[in-house]
Amino acid sequence: MSATLFLEQLINGLQLGTMLFLMASGLTLVFGVMGLINLAHGSFYMVGAYLTAAVTAASGSFMLGLGAGLLGAAAAGALVELIVIRRLYHRSHLDQVLATFALILIFSEGTRWLFGASPLWLSTPEWLSGYVTLPGDARYPLYRLVIIGVGITVAVGLYLLISRTRLGMRVRAGESDREMIGALGIDISRLYTAVFALGAGLAGLAGAMVGALQSVQVGMGEPVLILAFVVIVIGGIGSIKGALLGALLVGVVDTLGRVFLPLFFRGFLPPSEATDVGAALASMLIYILMAVILAFKPKGLFTVND
Amino acid sequence: MKQLARLGLGLLLSTGLATAHAEEVKIGMITTLSGGGSHLGVDVRDAFLLAIEQSGRDDIEVLVKDDARKPDLARNLANEFMQRDEVDLMTGIIWSNLAMAVVPSVVRQGTFYLSPNAGPSALAGRMCHENYFNVAYQNDNLHGAMGAWMKEQGYERPLIMAPNYPAGTDALAGFKHLYEGEVADELYTQMGQTDYAAEIAQIRASDADSLFFFLPGGMGISFMKQWQNAGVDLPVFGAAFSFDETLIKAVGEAAIGARNTSLWAYDLDNDTSRAFVESFQQAYDRMPTLYAAQGFDTANLILSALEQAHPDDQDAFREALREADFDSVRGEFRFGPNQHPIQDIYVREVVAGEDGEPTNRLLGIAVEDIQDIYHVDCKM
Amino acid sequence: MLALLLVLPVAADLLGHPYYVSLASRLTLIAMAAVGLNLALGYGGMISFGHAAYFGLGGYIAGIGAYHAFDATAFMGLLPGSDNLLVLWPLAMLACGLLALLIGAVSLRTSGVYFIMITLAFAQMVYYFANSWPTYGGQDGLPIYLRNQLPGLDTQDPLTFFLICFTGLVLAMALTSRLMGSRFGAALTMARLNETRLATAGISPYPIRLLAFVVSAVITGLAGALYADLNGFVSPSMLSWHMSGELMVIVILGGVGRLYGPLAGAVLFISMETLLGGVTEYWQLFLGLVLLGVVLFARHGVMGWLAGRESPGREPHE
Q: Are residues B135 and B244 in the same domain?
């Protein structure tokens, strides 16, 4: 195992982490501010990817597609918030789980109805294709570095938004005391719509960016959704900082585990068994990580409010 | 409009015109029409219905049900077909795990089952059955053929990769069985994995001279897209499951240059195939995949046997199926002793088509008359 | 409602429609699994998003037993296989109980959303483990070629098997009813509604909840074992988070914390699946719309709507 390969895998972990952060930040904001548990968050990821693929195919411009994916997902988020989600804020978690589970079914089947069952085509644009040479002569895809860049930009942007702007102030107020913010005369329903749309837009952005690397198909949001839940639970629900740390942790642990566990078991098991055991353990690794963290810190690493 | 016409045809066929024809034949089709990988089921269904329509027979009723790729749902639908609708024969299942859930109990209860896709090793060997016919392939056929062909082409250290599940491990075992040499490494990925950065880094770090992978459906799309930008210059090989006409359109230019084995190619030089491609394109406005070809062959095999006997006369009907006296789009077609095909496997290369979109071009035959290795375990 | 569920399949069998008998068995078992979940989720207020783990584990016990009995081999080279349900059922219940004890012991340290998510995480662990362990089929699942045996009965007969499932459901509901009528049930309700008051009575809520969680898992696990025998098949899809979600949906559809809620939910869910599935390829879209309608407008599930009042066992929203 060379240092170069290790470095490369570490960057891969970071890239997965930043992508998860885009998903998790919206999820955690929506929970932190509105107390809503949203299973349908993965659907916005899918909507973002589908719109990007469709608009890119129609216009020939990836940037245009990306914009459409981001804004379209945000618009879909705002719409869903207005029609369904706002009726759920005062409901139990149970009702929220059921309603958003129903939304997953509606979004998935609706998308299949509109776009058909076949995966859509979306590819990285010419100018983002190719690779960059890293120290140690490793080649690394430029596009993945761009994803990391976008993730960092969003993280910084969110930090500034929340710490420096009026919207952020209201969000923080909402997180610490939901009753208070209404009493301050802030139009709470508009704030909620905005926060929900922001989260949906970020998920759409993640879907759009990753759509160029993966297949754009119905149900693509679900595996990411579960990972994003793991992330926010590890980080502490409602905490952006926790989401960032949790995302990077999950990204790196998952990537490194998948590569190095089978290699580790090859040290003392025959290859096929080592692969079986290693792969089985690697696929369980982040859930084990989550269980261990919650066993010691039942409210995640960063607790926003108790 | 074509969509509407097709829907109409489907409804017509599935409601079956309800005329109580004395010799009417009921076919139950359980296939995947929703969720991930549903384009396979849609192609099988469309081509199957096309063949029935072309036969001009109005005494055949085809009931189509969606299994949503869930084994337990498929099992329930099978019970529904056998117990409520009393179908004469069944077909349609796409996935090996669903076939393993459904087929053994169906054939034991005396209903014929013809597989238009999916050929798990158990059903070809230890658990073969006189009422089970596989019209598509045994799962190893395409992988083994690629192993043999790569050996012949002089590749010395292929790195091979598949998801860590039974069909994946079978695929690699099948490849190695006919490759008969050392491989550079074996990588196992997770089912449904979407990011392959870690594997690509490992492939780059290895000393392999070629890459063979089996990543069906969306997994293959994701992998190929990520492979394109990784700057690894290894030739890529696979089975048609990752390179059907629908999938390579979704992969785009990243697929170009990849070579893959298939039991059928749309540019195959025979009349049946040409007529099939033309009529399929006319009916559905898209290029048929190998799954469509398999569905079409399955229907035509059934039609040829129905000329001889009604499924109620089980022995005669079974005998007629075994003869396989129909014009296959693959050219020659015959069954081995375990009622799985003995067939030629072709190699294709993905090239840029006239419209710039990727498409498969036939290179030649990889292996002639390939037969699965499990038939020796089949005691029928 | 139970009587109707008993009469219809018997009638269907007499009329020669075995299909409807197996459909009724399926409905009965899904209802039974939901009865199990309802004990934790409804009466105990523990929103478990991971009950598929027990449903699937129960199924796998039945499957693995049959697999070794069929092959005349031994589990881990130690335990011989068995196709006797009198052996397999207690085994499935024991295994699920132990797993739930383990999962519950860790998970119950958390609450609220964290509890939902940690139960999901544990179920995902079991799911991935089953997926990647090749001996028992991995992702392809494990077929049960001959239904497991019960001495003196022909389990292959659809009606006989239905009656076994039906007995299981009735017992599960009777157990729930007895439990909730006991001091234990009162303590569990109190633990949900007002933890502090329970504590002042000198009772710690943790062991009460843990016990309810374990019993709940045992019921769901037994339903899973029967379900595997009914289908003649067990696969990781029984362990997936979709399965957990569906069980939750059924409980909520029927009415949380109501004795007949899970049964009503299962009837509704299975009939929607059967009827809509026959009409359109996109039936899940309509299922989603119906579910959404139920949450938004029929707040207390079908049973609540029928009864037209607040559920006695329902939590006041947080």
A: no
